[in-house]
Each structure stands twice: as structure tokens, then as C-alpha cells.
Amino acid sequence: MGPSLPTLPWLLLLVLGQDVVQSQGPGLPSPLRLDGDHTIAGLFPIHRMRGYRKKTRPEVDVCESIPEPSLHGYHLVQAMRFAVEEINNASNLLPGLTLGYEIYDTCSLSSTIYATLSLLAQGKGRRHLAVAANYTSYLPTAVAVIGPDASENALTTAGLLGLFQVPELLKEVKQVKFSLSGREIHFDSFGDPLTGYDVVLWKWMGRAWSYSIIGSFDRNPDRLSINWERLLWHTEDNQVPVSVCSQECGVGEQKVRHGIHRCCFHCVACSAGTFLNKSNVYACQECREDQWAPARSEACFSRVAVFLPWGDKISLALLVAITLLLVLLLGTMAVFAQHRHTPVVRSAGGWLCFAMLASLACASLSLYCYFGAPNRLSCPLRYPMYNLSLTICLSCMLARSVQIVIVFKWASKVPRLYEAWRARHGPLWLIGTVVALQGLILLLYLSHGGLSVPQKNYAFQGLVVLECQSSCALILEFGPLYNGLLGLLCFAICYIGKDLPNSYNEAKCITGSLFLYFLSFLFYSTVLGMYHGKYLQAIIMASHFTTLCGMFGNYFAPKAYVILCRPERNTNEHFQMSIQSYTQRGHE
User: Fold this and answer.
1) Range with the lowest mean pLDDT among 243-252, 303-312, 412-421, 492-501?
2) pLDDT above 90 (res 397)
């Protein structure tokens, strides 16, 4: 089955009538005709209509009535007539056959449609164009068409000719051989000349025209030669015009097609983490996991490994500070051991002081695990060692605060509680219980396979963060949260004992320590959610270091100062005077 009749030809047939020129009306154009065995049609603008004439009904323009002739169209007509006559007069081109022609004046779109339908009519002397659903076996009068020369008219004619399957070359032409200007002319099975041809540039200067040879196409081997200097472009400064559907994309932009044509597209920049491989400009490709690319990139780059090296300036500063704190803790422990029987050391908790100093020293040692690339030794020690050490220190502070409040506040009001606290070793039980709960959190963490191991984190642009990760990170967060609640409890107990004797009043010391602890904890939590870079570990260390310094500076430094610099206050008499003054205020 051939193609079915589309909407446009139906409308044209309805407008112009099925019998196109079966009875030609007055004034309708007649073709310039030459009879032959095969007829070739020519559609040339012998007259040129300027603009569009307003019509009140469908009608064909009468080209002969247009006063302005077209010199170009006239030349085309004469060229076709000359070519047909030369072929007919040559005995070696189409032996036993003659070519005829029908040349129509296509001065407008309506005259072009009329001419096209006329040359499609069947039979000599008959001008009838039958309407059918299948034109596969349809044989029109003309077997080939030359023209029209205008794009709009050519598109209309091509649509109708394609419908009726009119064949551009005659089968016989493919088989002929002849000489022209000293050159042997013959064709291949596709009808293409095997001897090549010249490339001609036509020039119009008003109504005058001429042409010049600007190149050639040679066969065996195929080669196209163009003399670019002889080309004439109708543009400013004779610049080559741009004739593309879309402009070329910029660097790192993929081509997203419009429709089916590869030359029509719009440009979309490759997003971060992808790149444009020049071997495929129609799709951005993702980088490997260990690589990264910024937006609009044509290559991937290795990620920057992020960790805190030992030799970094900030690392060196932190190392000096942590080491100095550790020396102060050990020195204070030595001073307290030497003066362990003095009132200052006993009022500070006695043996509890050494437990607190030792826990602060262990917490300081845990900070060394943050330097350098994470490994299987430093990762498991970081958080558990620090959290457990901090829990021991806070539990000792809590036990000391409870002990002082019981002695000075509740001994006379609830004597049995005071006796039970002393007889049952209340501080040991309290510290043991608090530390055991933190230990239970660590055991729960380890039992769920939560041992922290070094891993690479690729979640950040351009970076590979070397960090310690655990499959049970949520359980691990219970440790700092537990210490925070323990600190609040210490603060509440200290508030109860805010009016104790100055020599035994630990409220100010503990409050100052806890205040810095809460500030560093908030700072640590905020930065952890906002910053992920090279100095993240340094920020975590600075936060922990601030907590340790706060506890040492507010609780132990004043007592060490009294022992070393104000020995007159480290006497039993001074402490007795402080207790008597508190007792007198209570009676008043």
C-alpha cells in the first residue's frame, strides 16, 4: 500500500477541484510544451510577484498579467529547452527515445500548486487528477520535475510529488555515455556522474547575473576542492554565515537533544561530582568514589585526604598545651601527696583528689589519639577513654559535694543519714555506682560490635575525611549525654551547699568547672554539625581540653596556690575559725 492522502492535498484538491484543467477557464496559464516519449516538467518564475494579493475567493494567479518579468526565470527556461534539444539531437544519449517538456510559470504559491497538479495529471489531452487512497501504480504525465527555485514553493511541490511518488533521474540516463567539452561523461548505478564535476557560484547584480567556478569534485579517489577566496557571502565584510541549530556548549556542559537531530540541543552544566568525557558529550559521567570534580568539569581529581597531622602548626600548639596540662596535673598530684595530711588536701576530698587528678590525667592522655591519621589503636581509645575518665572526675566531685552537704546541712537534722554515710563508705558506693553506669554504656556499645575503626568518609565535596567510625555511633553518644546529666546533678548539689564555710565551700569551684564544661560541650556539638574539614579533630580536642583545664583551674589550682603560696591558710586553726564563723551565722 502506498501512502494515504494527507490533509493538505485534500484541501488543495477541494479548493482547485478534482478536474484541475479538464476544462481550463479563461485566463488560466498554459504551459510551454514540447511532446516526447517522456515528459520532464519545469517550474520556473518567468514572472515575479511581489508580496501577496488579497483574494475574495480561491483562484490561481495569472502570471502573464504581472508586468514585472524575471530575467533569472527566463534564463532557466532557456537552459532547460537547450538541454532537452541537445539530448534529443544526440544519437548516442537516448537512442530511440525523445524527451518532451512542460514548462510552467510559477510566479506565486497558487500558480505553483496549479502547475504541480497539472503535471501530475494522466494521459495526453486529458487533464484529470483522480482521487485515490493508493498511488503506488499511478503514472502521471511528467516523470521528473525541475524546480521551483523558491523554498516555500519547493516544499509545497515536494509534498505533492512525494505523495504521487514521482521519481528526481530516468533509468536510461544511468546507462548512457557521452563526451562533453572533451570529457567522457557516464554514471554509476545510483545515477551519480563518475567523472566528477565543477562547483559553480552564481552571482546576481540586480537583473544581471554571471557565474564563476570556485572548485571541483573529482572521483577515484573522491576529493572536493574549494577555492575559499573566490566565495562570495551576502553578509557584512563577506563573513561566513553561521547556519547551526544550536551554539556549541561551554566547558563541562553536556548536550541535551531537541527531538531526533544531533545538531539541535540545549546545554546543561555537569553538576559537582560529575564530569564531561569528550568521547560522549551527551551525558555527564560520575567520578569514582575516591575522586571529585567541581561543576562544569571535564576531568575528575583526587580527593584531598583530611586528618590532623602531627607536624601541623595547630597540632604543635595543641601538643604543647596538652603536655603542659599533663605536667601540671602530675605536679599537683605530687604536691597533694606531699601535703596529704594538711587541712587543704583533706577538705578537698583527701583520697578523692588523687582519683580526680588521675582521671583528668587519663583524659588528657586520650587527646593524643586525635593526632595523625586514624589507626586501629587510636580509634578505640578516643571516646571511651575520655568519657570514662571524665565520669570518674565528675563522680568524685558529686561525692565530695554530697559529703559536705550531709556533714554541714543534714548531720543535725538527719543523724542516721550522716552515720550511714560514714559507716557504709557512702563516697565509694556513690562513685562506684556512677562509674558502673558509664561502664555499662561502654559494654553495651562494645557488645553491639561498636568498636571504632578507621574509615574514609566521601560525603564532603573534594575531601576524603579520615575518621573513626562505628556501627553503633548512637550508643556511643550516650556517654557524653550521661556526663552532661551528671554535671547538672553536681551543679544542683553545689547550689544546696552555697552557704557553707569558705574553707569547705566547693560550690564556686565546682560551678566554675561545670560552666566551662557546658560551654565546651555546646561548642563541640554545634561545630560537629556545621564543619567537616581538616581541623575538625583539632576543634574536638580544643573542646575537651577546655573542659579539663576548667576542672583543674577551678578546683585544684586554688588549693595548690594555698599550699604553695599561702601556707598560713593551710592550718587547723584557720579551718576551725572558718567553721566557728559559719556556726555563729547559723545561730544568728
Assistant:
1) 492-501
2) no
Closest CA to 159 of 44, 6, 13: 6
The residues pairing with 179 across neighbouring beta strands, listed in sequence order, are: 184
Q: Is 234 helix (H, G, I), strand (E, B) or coil?
A: coil
Interstrand relation of 463-469 and 453-457 (parallel, antiparallel or unpaired): antiparallel
Binned at pLDDT 50, 70 and 90, residue 294 comes out as very high
Contacts of 370 (CB under 8 A, 6+ apart): 308, 378, 382, 537, 538, 540, 541
Phi-psi region of 166 (alpha: psi -120 to 50; beta: other; left: phi over 0): beta
Instruction: Count the Cβ atoms, other than its own, within 10 Å of residue 444.
Output: 14
Burial class (CB in 10 A: 0-12, 13-18, 19+), 140: buried
**What DSSP character marks residue 334?**
H
Assign residue 349 a region: left if phi > 0, alpha if psi is -120 to 50, beta otherwise? left
| CA-based nearest residue to 142, from 88, 103, 96 | 103
pTM of the full structure: 0.56
Q: What does the alpha-carbon distance between residue 201 and residue 210 come to, in Å, rounded to a whole number?
A: 9
Of 183, 232, 225, which Cα lies nearest the Cα of 211? 232
Measuring CA to CA, which residue among 532, 533, 366 is closest to residue 452? 366
| Residue 415, preceding peptide bond in cis (omega within 30° of 0) | no
Q: Tell me how far apart the terminal alpha carbons of the chain are, to the nearest angstrom.
A: 121
pLDDT given at position 169: 53
Question: Which of 260-269, 383-392, 488-497 comes out lowest in average pLDDT?
Answer: 488-497
Nearest to 44 by CA among 25, 13, 15, 69: 69
> Rounded to whole angstroms, how far apart are CA atoms 547 and 192?
91
Q: In whole numbers, what is the pLDDT of the chain averaged over residues?
A: 80
CA nearest to 84, candidates 125, 121, 32, 30 = 32
Four-point Cα dihedral 83, 84, 90, 92, nearest 10: 100
Question: Strand pairing of 301-302 and 291-292?
Answer: antiparallel
What number is the average pLDDT over the span 286-313? Answer: 90
CA distance 567 to 201: 114
Cβ neighbours for 185, distance < 8 A, ≥ 6 positions apart: 177, 178, 179, 193, 195
CB 36 within 8 Å of CB 101: yes
Sequential DSSP letters for 444-508? HHHHTT---EEEEE--STTEEEEEEE-TTHHHHTHHHHHHHHHHHHHHHHHHHTTTS-TTT--HH
Q: Which of 163, 167, 166 is nearest to 191 (CA)?
A: 167
Q: What angle do CA 50, 54, 59 make, to 5 degrees?
A: 95
- Which of 87-101, 256-270, 515-529 has the least mean pLDDT? 515-529
Total count of residues recorded for the chain: 588
Distance CA(135)–CA(588), nearest Å, equals 126
Pick from 46, 51, 12, 54: which is nearest to 29 by CA?
Answer: 46
Cα(167)–Cα(140) distance, rounded to whole angstroms?
Answer: 11
